[in-house]
Amino acid sequence: MSKTMNDKKAGASQTLPVAMLAVAVFGVLLTLTIELSYKYTWIMEICGGGQSGCADVASTPFARIPMPMMENGLSVAYLGLLVYVSFIFCQVYFPRLTLPIASAMMGAEFYFLWVMASILGIFCMFCVIQFVTVSILFLLTMAWGWKRTDHILPGGKWANVAVVALAFVIPTAPVVLKKGSTSVMEGEYLTYAGDPASRIRVEIFSDFQCPYCQKIEPEVEKIMKLRPDVLVVFRDYIIPSHGLSPFAVSFANGVALTQGREAFIRIRREMFENQNRLRDYLEGHKDMVEFTPELRKRIEKKVEGDLKVAESLNIYSTPTLVVYRDGKMAQIIKAGDATYDKISRFIKP
Questions:
Q1: Domain end position, chosen among 129, 150, 177
Q2: How would DSSP label each residue in 81-102?
Q3: What are the pLDDT digits (tens) for 72-114?
Q4: pTM for the complete prediction?
Q5: Domain end point (choices 148, 177, 206)
Q6: Do residues 130 and 109 make contact, with C-beta atoms less than 8 angstroms apart?
Q7: Which of 38, 110, 25 is nearest to 74 (CA)?
């Protein structure tokens, strides 16, 4: 009887490590699939293609981690792949490290789930499967390490609960504490449309001589027409090689500051419509604004403020749209992706 019981215990003790290894190998295959989906569009079709939640989440800044010497940063999927491989390596050679690694993975998955639910409002099928995979791996590893006494962290098995919490709080805290560019008008700036009290804000960085900015104007008009509840903020980013842009920006802001928001929106629209003859348009309308020294200071302050916001977000081209939800940045959309269909998925009520 004693031998039978011992055999059962031995079998059970072997079952958990095998299950942990199997789940970790599945995680490697999953993260590898996600990473390859960025390169091979047919893989993304598994999740629904370019119009899917997977594609939307993958296009957000949250899908990549800024890294020195890496222009586009490190993809989260690739980092996950490295962590799964590390887990497998440690399970074979340093088993005491597996529980802290699984705990850190669990905390990170809670963070990504929070990002999708609270900031993006969009869910990725691959990411949800990843969350379930890591949850199973964490539970298996906790069950395996529950009765062990050789824990590497002070506090034994309960210290790993703290690891989960820390792995969630460390990336979450900067997002929560970082102030979005909420001072969009500072009381006097009227370069906006929609509801100033909206929890959803779209900031558009543009240049009046930029042909791509002109191209997306119909998409901007759709936002203003179809979603009047969304706050649309017009920010200026002057391309140095565009000789007319400095005066065009000064003129548009001068209209906003002296004649009001509605006049600004009309003039802005007309300037893009007349982009091919912008010099003639400005020459014919410049008398609308009397550029006093005080007005020039107010315009300069606004334009410099827009530039600081752009630099803080690493924006160096136009047009660029930034979507905020509840004051937190949810997405940065570059020119090629700036369609209403794309934008609308990030500004759902």
A1: 177
A2: HHHHHHHHHHHHH-GGGHHHHH
A3: 678 899 999 999 999 999 999 999 999 999 999 999 999 999 9
A4: 0.69
A5: 177
A6: yes
A7: 38
